[in-house]
Amino acid sequence: MTRPLLKSASALALLCILPVQAWAAADAQALADALKRQFDKNGTALTIGSATAEGDDVILSDVSIKPGEANAAQMEEIRLEDVSESETGFRIGTIAAPEFSMTKDGKTLDFGGASITGLQVPKENETDPVRKLSVLVEGATMGPVRVSEGDATIFSMDGIDYTASAYVAGEPLLTEMKVTGLQGDMTKLPDEKSRAVMQALGYSTLSGDMTMKGSWNPADGRMQINEWMLDVTDAAALNITMDLSGFTTDLIRQMQEITAKRDSGEMNEQAMGFAMMGLMQQLSFNGAQIALDDASLTGRVLDFVAAQQGARRADVVNMAKGMMPILLSRLQNPAFASMVAGAVSDYLDDPQSLTVTAAPDAPVPAPQIMGAAMGAPQTIPDVLNVTVEANTCGTITC
Asked: What are the beta bridge partners of residue 73?
């Protein structure tokens, strides 16, 4: 969640605050240099052979993008459209990737294009702590995408649509992303055992959508995932929410510095891990929830297990209920174990929804959670006020 929020927040409000004459034709090379600085902050090496202005556009040639240790992506040319410049930064109206089709090893990828709109890139003299962190984005779209083999579609996606609110100092940044029309052919899975399992479950294809809604308030560092849902048709919907405090611009800057040291070889992976753990001490946990709404998946899994054992679904359910007290006794928290056993039993008898909620009365500092996890893990459910409920309304659907 961190990187999408940082890299994809919007600064449209800046256009309303600044007078029209504050934006002028852009210095192409200065923009290229500013982009490289921002990519470096996030552990990505950006190499640009040349940058030239063409009216209101800037053309970047011989571009290489290398995220961390991953392979570099090479592009002959990238056109930045409707570029303007102010005293403290640049605004790029649109970056568009064209449609294309390519075939390799008998499989064809059809890509419907993509675009990013409203990018704001800071200069070195930018003083606003949020604008200094990363490139701010107003929106992005991609798709459709299709992977096929002959006439058969292996995977397809209608598209991705991302939007972000305007950045106004002191106010939260809001983001939303929708991934629609996901579909995969389970008969084309490369692993034979996986194909057999999906066939036994009755899924020759899987389709669904994914949505994400979140916010980040730079003023107090509060970050919320209000919705992160994967809804698979005729299977289940899974939704995750989370609420954290302490994710300030200063914390993010320190994380970027640690990442830069790792990338330069000044710090190894182990040292980086310890440093990041130290920074996490600044966070506090406000709450979280994991909610599963069943749409036939649980019943299919129970029937599959029953068939494997030559039994009935009811036998599998009763066996699971009988094992739960033994498994949950390891938690060394009888009250919590009893609650979990009751909720899971109700869910197995009538699979509708299963919800795990952590709702502490007050924000819990990360050091307190880590201390409990190392010294008395059985107290974690009580520290975070964790509840488990089955077949209740208000999780995802009802």
From this structure: 65
